[in-house]
Amino acid sequence: MNFLSHFYFDREATDCYFILGTVLPDLLKNADKSIVLHPEKLHHPNPKVNSIVSGWNKHLDVDRYFHSSDFFLTHSHQLKKELNPAIAGSPVKPFFLGHIGIELILDNLLITTGKITVGDFYDHLKSCDTNVIQFFLTAAGLEDCSRFFRFFEGFKHDAYLHTYSETEHIAYALKRICMRVWENPFTAQHETQMNQILVAYRQLLLPHFMSIFNEIENKL
């Protein structure tokens, strides 16, 4: 699941460090895909660091339930099939588009149906003390945290998740993600065709998309 879908499960939480932990695995991956940490059993004398660990473990649980669900397997496969002809000539792998596309659509639906407020998510991240995050990363085995913190400051400043509310720009958000792997993933024609498919698929999911959140919530 993407950032905002993870946030949904703890949207009423007041502990900013726990919230950070629920999205930190993905933040680290976006900052530097070579970073691999396993702090699942970390216990630290600072309780705020332990809150990050708890959030991290919640993230792993949510992703495990989501990626093994019939909802994800069915819709990521179907969306892949629909997007495949629209990206002819693109280097992007269709399975990647199906996977990420479904996650972006879910984030969009949470925002546009009023299930979450993006500003609340960013408020939590901005409330976290950099020193506490540094304690966590160091204890988890990351020797050089500079690249992560450069990314994290930009992530908070740009606040680009607000754009996920703009249904007509889902393809652009997908392009941004693909550009981390492929330099020029899509042509303008690709984007136009992708967007038509993604918007239509969003309408298909709209009546029942909350079923996957309810399913995961029952397992947590």
List the helices and strands and how they pair.
Layout (H helix, E strand, L loop, with lengths): L2 H6 L7 H16 L15 H21 L2 H14 L10 H19 L5 H10 L2 H10 L6 H13 L11 H9 L9 H18 L4 H10 L1
Structure description:
- With 220 residues, the protein is an all-alpha fold.
- The chain has one domain (3-219).
- Helix content is 66%, strand content 0%.
- It contains eleven helices and no strands.
- Helix 3 packs across helix 7, helix 4 (70-83) crosses helix 5 (94-112) and helix 5 (94-112) crosses helix 9.
- The model has no long low-confidence stretch (mean pLDDT 94).
Task: Please give the domain count.
Answer: 1
Q: Give the SSE string.
A: HHHHHHHHHHH
Main structural class: mainly alpha
Overall mean pLDDT: 94
Kindly, what is the distance between the CA atoms of the first and last residues, rounded to a whole number of angstroms?
15 Å
Tell me what portion of residues adopts beta-strand conformation. under 5%
User: Spans with pLDDT under 50 lasting ≥5 residues?
Assistant: none
Radius of gyration: 17 Å
List keywords for this structure.
single chain, 220 residues, mainly alpha, 11 helices, Acyl carrier protein phosphodiesterase
Summarize it:
The chain has one domain. It contains eleven helices and no strands.
